[in-house]
Amino acid sequence: MNSQLSVIGLDGATFRLILPWVQEGKLPNFKKIMETGVWGGLESTLHPLSPQAWASFMTGKNPGKHGIFEFAAHRPNSYDLRYVNGGSVQGRKLWEILSEGGRRVCVMNVPFTYPPVPVNGCLIAGLDAPGVHSGFCHPPDLLNELTDKFGEYQLREHPYGATPEGFLKKILAQFDYILDVALYLKAKEVWDLFVVVFESTDLVQHFYWHYAFPEQFGLTPFDSPVLQDAILNVYVKIDQGLGRLLDLCGTDENVIIMSDHGFSPCRKVFFMDNWLQQQGYLNYSVQTGGTYAVTRLIHRAFQRNVPNHLKQRIVSKIPGLKDRVRSYLTTATIDWQKTRAFSLGIDSTNIFINLEGKFPQGTVRAGKEYEDLRDEIACRLKRLVDPDDGQRIVQEVYKREALYSGANLMEAPDLLVTWKDFEYNTRRGYDTERDSLFGSSLEYSDVSGYSSLQKSGTHHLEGIFLGQGRDFKNGGRFYGAKIIDLAPTILYLLGAGIPEDMDGRVLEEIITEGFVAGNPRRQTICDPVEDRRSSSGYGDGEEDYIRDKLRGLGYID
């Protein structure tokens, strides 16, 4: 008989914080799991972004197959972007596979699960849900049940108008709410698969890293114990929540604790479009004088001199003003007929070649010209150095085919840049001088127009994995797990067939010999129909909501 399995996702959790705090006795439940089960790093996707990482978790496939590479994607034959959601993920998710096999599943707050698909059980969408009135629950009447019992459902929101102290209270309150709902649903019935994701780790690390580790940013310690200990206190609450969830798990139940990526400090930003322009790859139709110069001057003065509370009042009085200004100062001014490469991304750096046949004003021919240009850009990027220490800042520049494979490969960026130690982020550079290549991550955190928060933490490739329960070894630390391995491993532990097109592997090395001996793996043949996307995209109002949320969180430019 196969046991039940619970997955507890901690968005962005990292062992660089957990391990020292475990050693100091501050996280007793983490310590207990590590002593009685298995644990190790969990390699995320490149880039380690929430959309593609969670899509890889739920499908067991690389982004070239599931088709998610960023928070946004280019519309066909266009430079315009659309925002992706769970309906954009190609292929069946692991809970759909289990549901179709008659298993009961409960999935809540997993990013990129909107719109919710009907499952044998319940599904509550996460980050990509466009508000509490968007029909983000299956079955629909579940929302009324939860609202009656716990109050208005708390989706992840952007920190509009928040102070650091105020947003921290919101982070803690949302964690408490999601934990209460998880405990309620977990106890409501016996689920074959129970999945819950807590986002508080991601949020607190993005915005409070410099408070906890001011020396990494050349700052003096802050005179605020609440802010200094914000990250630690969130981990302590999570540790306590783990204890309560584990108390509901039966002796036959397996438990996985995981994160979609890790975290590290973000010390600086690099203005990629400025660099592309300086190298002659990107050109602007209007660079000096006229409306552009006036708009840019006003925008820079507004950003630097107007108090945050007045900024928020102004942008709230003129809906869409901020987006129109941004659009005009970025892609609207690009001379596409003289541009060969352009960028996209903040926590990541993606470079697209302006290819003939793919983009409406493509300037680069496929074949040798395309390949030579990619090689040239990669070579020049690898020579970049930080002017403050003279050290190279680019860890690697990947061609898309080196990372991805599958039917959606051509939708991937042409080049993907990873920074040394993941400690740099990218900004477009439209609100800086054109000769500026570097800036402070705290100054250019891209949330200043929404709040007084500063974004100082960024995603890292190595997340976390912990496993305990009847079928996991008491084996301590192990190595080599990837996020794409979780779906096939979970299906295997629950006795389900594993689709043959999954890229991940079953982590047999952490499963007991007895279970492996008694449960040969079964592969299932994939029906091509399974690979079709469900309905994706947002309505006008929903897209505005998502754009505002992602910009407020500093995820898009």
Written account of the structure:
35% of the residues lie in helices and 17% in strands. The protein is an alpha/beta fold.
Number of strands: 23
Basic shape: globular
Fourth-tier CATH superfamily name of the largest domain: Alkaline Phosphatase, subunit A
- CATH topology of the largest domain, what is it called? Alkaline Phosphatase, subunit A
The residue ranges in which pLDDT falls below 50 over 5 or more consecutive positions are none
Structural class: alpha/beta
How far apart the termini lie comes to: 50 Å
Residue fraction in strands: 15-25%
- Biggest sheet character: 10 strands, mixed
What is the helix content? 25-40%
Per DSSP, the total helix count is: 19
CATH architecture of the largest domain: 3-Layer(aba) Sandwich
Mean pLDDT: 89
**Whole-number radius of gyration?**
23 Å
CATH domain class of the largest domain? Alpha Beta
Brief synopsis:
With 557 residues, the chain is of the alpha/beta class. The chain is 35% helix and 17% strand.
Give the helices and strands, then pairings:
Blueprint: E1 5-10, H1 15-23, H2 28-36, E2 38-43, H3 50-59, H4 63-66, E3 72-74, E4 81-83, H5 94-100, E5 105-110, E6 121-125, E7 137-138, H6 141-150, H7 164-188, E8 193-198, H8 200-212, H9 225-228, H10 230-247, E9 254-258, E10 262-265, E11 268-271, H11 272-278, H12 290-305, H13 308-317, H14 321-329, E12 341-344, E13 349-353, H15 368-382, E14 394-399, H16 400-403, E15 415-419, E16 424-427, E17 438-440, E18 457-460, E19 462-468, E20 476-477, E21 481-482, H17 486-493, E22 498-499, H18 513-518, E23 523-524, H19 540-552
Parallel strand pairs: 1-8, 1-9, 2-20, 2-21, 5-6, 5-8, 11-16, 22-23
Antiparallel strand pairs: 2-19, 3-4, 6-7, 9-19, 10-18, 11-17, 12-13, 13-15, 14-15
Helix pairs in contact: 7-8, 7-10, 8-10
